[in-house]
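Lecture notes, continued. The same structure-token format from the folding unit now serves as the input rather than the output. Read the line below as a description of shape only.
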């Protein structure tokens, strides 16, 4: 029995192409914080509208700033909430490093109990982080 190497190679190339397309689709179409969180050197940083809101220290572009404090090394830190991601970011390592990330919350106010629970958890996380000076 003779194996048709060119046919096997074409099939392998098709499968690799489909896998690459699937990986890209998952990355760009999956729900989550796409476009507001980026990874650099293995660390998560704010990007786009989240970065702008943290820089300006004002609620804007779907981001609500819940508070700010001095974090480790006296780095400025902000507590934030968005529909896709919530957390704590500190200005360090050349950007807004996301020290804590949690699920997003409905910042429009339609899920008061869920929003309050995440707000409370983030504020507790901020107290602990501020204490690690």
């Amino acid at each position: 029995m003779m194996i048709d190497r060119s046919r096997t190679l074409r099939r392998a190339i098709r499968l690799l192409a489909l896998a690459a397309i699937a990986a890209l689709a998952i990355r760009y179409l999956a729900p989550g914080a796409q476009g507001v969180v980026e990874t650099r050197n293995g660390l998560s940083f704010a990007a786009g509208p989240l970065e702008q809101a943290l820089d300006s220290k004002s609620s804007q572009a779907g981001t609500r700033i819940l508070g700010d404090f001095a974090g480790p090394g006296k780095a400025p830190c902000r507590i934030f909430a968005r529909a896709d991601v919530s957390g704590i970011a500190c200005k360090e390592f050349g950007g807004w490093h996301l020290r804590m990330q949690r699920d997003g919350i409905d910042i429009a106010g339609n899920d008061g109990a869920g929003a309050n629970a995440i707000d409370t958890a983030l504020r507790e996380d901020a107290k602990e982080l501020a204490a690690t000076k």
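Point for the exam: Residues 24-32 have pLDDT under 50 and may be disordered.
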